[in-house]
Structure formats: C-alpha cells, structure tokens
Amino acid sequence: MTIGVIGLGLIGGSMAIDLRRRGFADRVLGVEGDPVAAEAAARMGLADEIVGFDRCVAESDIVVVAVPVGTAVRMVPEILDAFRDSGAADKVVMDVCSTKEKICLAAKYHPCRKQFVSSHPMAGTEYSGPWAAMPNLFDGRACIIADASESSPAAVKKVEDLYGVLNMRMLYMDSSSHDVHTAYVSHISHITSVALALTVLDKEKDEKHIFDLASGGFSSTVRLAKSNPDMWVPILTQNRENILHVVDTYIQKMNLFREAIDSFDEETVRSLIEEANKIKKIIR
Does residue 32 sit in the same domain as residue 160? Predict the structure, then answer.
C-alpha cells in the first residue's frame, strides 16, 4: 500500500507518521509546496520520499489531500482527472478538510466521483507545519465521512480501514449538515478565541502583564488564536452562511450577559451560568 499525502502539516504529517508506524502504509509519498516545510518534512522522515504532485498521484493507492480547503476544492477534481486519464479505477482520493459542502459540490459531477471520499478527522492543535506533526493525534477522536453514498462502497471501505488504523470513531452525515454542526462546535470557537485575543491585546498594551497574569483559563480560551490564518481564512469563507448565523446567536447571548451585568441583575447572570452548566452533561 502506497499512501500519498499532499500537505505534510499537522494533519497530513501526523497521518503519515501513524499510517506507516502501524503498518497500514508500506510506503508514504509526500508533497509539500513550501520549500522550507518540504526540507523539514524530509529531515523529520514524515514521508519515505518528497515528490511532485503528478508522481504522487500516479504512484499512490490512496491520495490524502491535507491542504487548506480553498486549495483542496481545486485539487480534488484535478486528481480525479488524473485517475480518469490513466484508467486507475481502483485508486482513491480523500480530503481531510474542515468544510465539506463546497468540496463535495466541486467533485459531484465528475465521472470518477465514486473514487473520492470526503472526510474530516476531528483532531488537531493550534500549531501548524511539519514541526507540529505528532504520533497518536487521532486516537479516540471522531471522524466524519460526508456524502458517503456518492462514493463507491470499496472506496469508503478503504478510507474506513485507514481511519480504523488511526483508532478513530466513524460518523456519517451529509456535507451540508456537517458544515452546520462544525460551525457550532469548531469554527465559532476559533472566532471567539481570536476576538478575545484582539480584545486583550488592544486593552493590555504591556505584554508583560498579559504573561504574568494569564491563568490557565485564559490560556486555554485564547489558545486557538494561535492557529494558522492560511488554513482558517478559507474555512470561514466557505462556511460563511452557517458561521454568520452562529456569530449572530453568540452576540445575542453576549448582549444578554452585558445587559444583566449593566443592570446589576444577579439573578439573570446566575440563570445564564446555570443554563450553560448543562453542557457538563455532554462534555466532561
């Protein structure tokens, strides 16, 4: 089994480590457009060989597209074109992007659509690049396969086997529902983290005070503000409508807090916190 990983950052690099270490891949071919990152990935041994895009697609049984979603939307149809032109009916291309609807739409009418499996492993950190890649990143986490009915059963089975080796729990939903849910549980977290970081940086000009006074709660809340903008700008753009709805709801809740605090309404503040405490039954 030869696995091609296009984009050897946090997700792609971490997948490459465990797929080879756990025996799923006999060989890993890596593609990395940034020369500095490519050299780092080679020195770290994330792939057996760093190659060009065309060679990776030609020689890989499964091609993993682990690049920002704006690039992936263009890249997946190009890979399917290569499958069609070479008659490679048994190859599979999969993406690992955080939005699904537009990438699934981009491949929807391609004659080789059934060789594409759209997935989203719900794992990661705030760090990026090959330096962020680590073993065991995916263990016990959820992975979503979107629009599975539009992929061939054989292609889905290969991707399920791949994620099985990574010890992930599989979930299935349509691409539209995926984007709604991730807007609520993932994308809004990044927006609020960035907004908090900007607020603190604006008010606390003395960086030493931020460092000295920052508690664990602040550090964990603002952690996502360190995420790579090259990855997050296209995510927020592609999931625009869902995210705007979530942001509007978030602002409404913030206004409730503001009004209650402004009017010394301790009962309302207490009720809002107690209502939010119900999340403990879902997330421990």
Answer: yes
Does residue 135 share a domain with residue 224?
no
Q: Is 144 helix (H, G, I), strand (E, B) or coil?
A: strand
Of 173, 201, 227, which residue sits at a domain end? 173
Report how far residue 271's alpha carbon sits from residue 20's, in angstroms, rounded to the nearest whole number: 51
pLDDT given at position 268: 95
The helix or strand, by DSSP H or E, that contains position 80, with its residue range, turns out to be: helix 69-86
- Give the CATH number of the domain where residue 270 resides: 1.10.3660.10
- pLDDT tens digits along 106-142: 999 999 999 999 999 999 888 889 999 999 999 999 9
| pTM tops 0.90 | no
Query: What contacts 79, CB < 8 A, 6 or more positions away?
Result: 57, 63, 65, 93
- Domain residues for the domain of 183 are 178-281
Out of 117, 150, 173, pick the residue that ends a domain. 173
